[in-house]
Amino acid sequence: GGTTVSSTQLVNSPLIKDGIVTTFVPLVSLVVAYNAVVGERESGSLKLLLALPHSRSDVVLGKVVGRGAAIAVAILAGFALPVVVFVVHPSFAFEAVGYVQYVLLTALLGVAFVAVAVGVSAATASNRIAIAAAITIYLVFVVLFGAIHGSIGFVSMLAGWPDWMPLTVEQTQRAVQLLSPTGSFKIIVNRALSGSLFGGEQARLQLSAFTMLVAWVVVPPLLGLIRFEASDL
Question: Which residues of the chain have pLDDT under 70?
Fold first, then answer.
C-alpha cells in the first residue's frame, strides 16, 4: 500500500494555508468589496437607492451581508470540490471535523476582510481613496504584521529582550497576531486542524482570536457607517 495523505495534512500545507488562504482570500475579499458603497456614491445610484425606503445603515449592512455571502459561498464551493477526491480516492483520508472547521474559519476570514473593505468604502468619498485604503489594509494586515511577528523572535535572539517591556517575547508575538485578522485566523485554525479547537491549555487564546475575527466583521462597518451618516452625498 502507498502512503496515505490526510485532508488535514493537505490543507495545512504552506501552499494552501499560507499561500492561497491567508494571501489570496484577503486580496479577493478586498477587491470584491472596496467600492461597495463609494462606487454607487460616485455613480449617483446611491441617491436613488436612498430615495427609496432604505436607510444608510441598510445600505452598509446589505453590502456586508451580500458581498460577504458571495465570498463565503465561493470559499465553501472551492473547498467542497476536493471532498469528492478525499472520499473516493484511496490515497486520501478524509478527516471531516477538522476539514469542515477549517473551511468555515476560512469563510469567516473572507467575510472579515469584506467587512473591513465595506467599512472603508462607506467612510470614503472617492474611489481612488478606497483603492488606496484597500491596498494599505492588505499590506498592513497580510504583509507587515506577518513581518513584525517573525522579526520579534529574531530581534530578541540577536539583541536580547528589554527588561522594561511589560510582555514576554511570546506574549508580544501573540498580541501582534491577535491584532491582525490573518494572525487570529492562524491561531484558531492551527488548533482546529490538530483536533483541539477551543480546548486544551490554549483555549483562552483561541477564544480571544475568534473574538477578534468576529470583531473585524462587526466594528469596521459600524465605524464606516458613523462616517457615512455624517457625510453629504
Answer: 1-18, 89-94, 194-195, 233
